[in-house]
Design goal:
about 575 residues, alpha/beta, ABC transporter transmembrane region fold, Rossmann fold, 6-stranded mixed β-sheet, 4-stranded antiparallel β-sheet, 20 helices, binds 5-Methyluridine triphosphate, binds magnesium ion
């Protein structure tokens, strides 16, 4: 049914769950016995003027009500606790699962949808779990119990409530069939609202800069309208079906009063019994209303649960070997052999037949126009994505055969799009190695040319970044990001256009310091500026996903037209000697 995987969570709380069920059963039995006692009070007590009897049974009724209230309170406390813990467990597992997914999986789900699943969908399932400890048990016991009690009171007249049951079942199943697809669509509409919100918040500066508020507002209005309309549709279904059930039962009550009235008149039935009967009918009504509510909750939860299950059942598209080899303790020789790569949503090759070798401790620079595949190429090394064909080897071992954690532990990447976290500057640098000492933090910050500007803040390394704290310039962020990568002491360091926002002089300083610091580290450096790459041991020239030149600066100047063009466009014909 799609809800099977939730069993383990409920089983975890089975004791409390069963306790809640027992309490609610007792409470419902109390409700069921009341009308019968009342009919006795009227027929045996009031009618005969037996005050003692009235008081005695009245007291009993009070006692049952009081006990019922006590049960209800206990049961509410238990069920809230169980459902909240259940929701928290589910959310946590889902969160862990999402972390295990590959980037490709995440691209496929889209992050806004994952957020809805993690929040709203889990809430729906949690609400259902809460309900299951309350009205779930109450509704059938109350409904069936009330029918049985009316049979005991008067078998012939009990045919009336019994006759209503099949009619109501038909109504409810129709409701179910119509609303399930609607609820699935509601959750999807919610995804869209979240997606627009996320994009807007992430791009708020651009929206402001281009003054595109109206455009964004329209976009939001559209998805928001969509959500409203589909939710309204769902509500309309409920709005039609709930009163239909009530109406059916009300007709039953009228029938009881009518048949009963005739029988009282002919002296075949007592007034108290009729009253009790009407009471039981009301209970049947109540139970059916509860039942439709449960079913609505159920289908909503089922729709959500399917969406959660989808995530749980997604195998990470990153295949991890059963018995992986540890990261080789070698020196970090990196080889690409006939590597082909494309993104799953794109049929075009992004990288074609890429082969090169970087020797331990060497620096490989990659240059090429925007969109030529530089970032895609380096993202393959820590296995953010896997190659489609060919192989990547580190110290002669295919990276797909290595332990993924080890692999990523030994590679540091300074991503093109810098991301710093809320916290202090020190926290952000230590993100790369949480055991690093303050001295080490300072050392890498100096190499990244970040120390001076960090010290210019009042709080120094303890300056708080992000919400409510300091915001850094693009170049400052890049330098913190470099420091964070260095502190890991990686075997392979990848710098993806990491100094693009840093001025030329500072960049040269960083490059020189890095050269000393990284003697034994294999470095891959992506840059747009020819001056950043010309000292590298080897330079790869990428053009539309293919290597069009490979060698050192002099070699490329001689035999690579693309490289020469870049060089001349940036430095002019004579500028070549400017780099050293
Ligand atoms: C290379 C395509 C993109 C481009 C090519 C990240 C990403 C890229 N692409 C996708 O289809 N999906 C993706 O998720 O791949 O892109 P790149 O590797 O990012 O290029 P680059 O790093 O050389 O460019 P730049 O601008 O950083 O210098 O065609 O459409
Ligand atoms: Mg890039």
């Amino acid at each position: 049914m799609g809800l099977g995987y939730l069993k383990k969570y409920l089983l975890r709380y089975r004791r409390q769950y069963i306790a809640a069920l027992i309490f609610i059963t007792l409470e419902t039995f109390g409700d069921l016995i009341q009308p019968t006692i009342m009919s006795k009070v009227i027929d045996n007590g009031v009618k005969r003027g037996d005050m003692d009897y009235v008081l005695k049974l009245g007291g009993l009724m009070f006692l049952i009500t009081a006990l019922g209230a006590g049960f209800a309170i206990t049961r509410n406390i238990i069920s809230s606790k169980v459902s909240q813990s259940f929701g928290a467990d589910l959310r946590e597992d889902l969160y862990i699962k999402i972390q295990s997914l590959s980037l490709e999986n995440i691209d496929e789900f889209q992050d806004a949808s994952l957020i809805t699943r993690l929040t709203n969908d889990v809430n729906q399932v949690q609400n259902f779990a809460h309900g299951s400890m309350r009205i779930f048990v109450k509704a059938p016991i109350l409904g069936i119990g009330a029918v049985i009690m009316s049979f005991i009171l008067n078998p012939t007249m009990a045919l009336i409530p019994l006759g209503l049951v099949p009619i109501v079942i038909v109504i409810i199943s129709m409701n179910l069939k119509i609303s399930y697809p609607i609820f699935t669509r509601i959750q999807r509409a919610l995804d869209k609202v979240n997606a627009v919100m996320r994009e807007y918040l992430a791009g708020i500066r651009v929206v402001k800069a281009f003054n595109r508020f109206d455009y964004e507002k329209d976009r939001f209005r559209k998805v928001n309208e969509g959500l409203k309309n589909i939710t309204l549709k769902g509500m309309r279904v409920i709005a039609v079906f709930n009163p239909t059930v009530s109406l059916t039962v009300s007709i039953g009550i009228v029938l009881v009063l009518w048949v009963g009235g005739v029988r009282v008149n002919t002296g075949n039935m007592e007034v108290g019994k009729i009253m009790a009967f009407v009471n039981y009918m009301t209970q049947v009504l109540h139970s059916l209303v509860l039942m439709t509510r449960i079913l609505n909750m159920f289908i909503r939860a089922k729709a959500s649960s399917e969406r959660i299950r989808e995530v749980f059942e997604t195998e990470s598209s990153m295949k991890v070997k059963e018995s992986p080899t540890a990261f080789p303790n070698g020196q970090g020789r990196l080889e690409f052999e006939n590597v082909y790569f494309k993104y799953h949503n794109n049929s075009r090759w992004v990288l074609e037949d890429i082969s090169f070798t970087v020797n331990p401790g060497e620096t490989l620079a990659i240059i090429g126009s925007t969109g030529s595949g530089k970032t895609s190429l380096v993202n393959l090394i820590p296995r953010f994505y896997d190659v489609v064909e060919g192989s990547i080897r580190i110290d002669n071992i295919d990276i797909r055969h290595m332990n993924l954690d080890d692999l990523r532990e030994r590679i540091s990447i300074v991503p093109q799009k810098v991301l710093l976290f809320t916290g202090t500057i020190k926290d952000n640098i230590k993100w790369g190695d949480k055991n690093a000492t303050d001295k080490e933090v300072e050392e890498v910050a100096k190499i990244a040319e970040a120390h001076d500007f960090i010290m210019s803040f009042n709080e120094g390394y303890n300056t708080y970044l992000g919400q409510g704290g300091v915001n850094l310039s693009g170049g400052q962020k890049q330098r913190i990001s470099i420091a964070r990568a260095l502190i890991k002491k990686p075997s392979i360091l990848i710098l993806d256009d990491s100094t693009s926002a840093v001025d030329l002089i500072t960049e040269r300083k960083i490059r020189n310091k890095l050269k000393d610091y990284l003697k034994n580290t294999t470095t891959i450096l992506i840059a747009q500026r020819i001056t950043s790459v010309m000292d590298a041991d080897k330079i790869l020239v990428l053009d539309r996903g293919k290597i069009v030149g490979q060698g050192n600066h002099e070699e490329l100047m001689e035999n690579c037209q693309v490289y020469r063009d870049i060089c001349i466009s940036q430095l002019g014909k004579e500028g070549v000697s400017f780099g050293s």
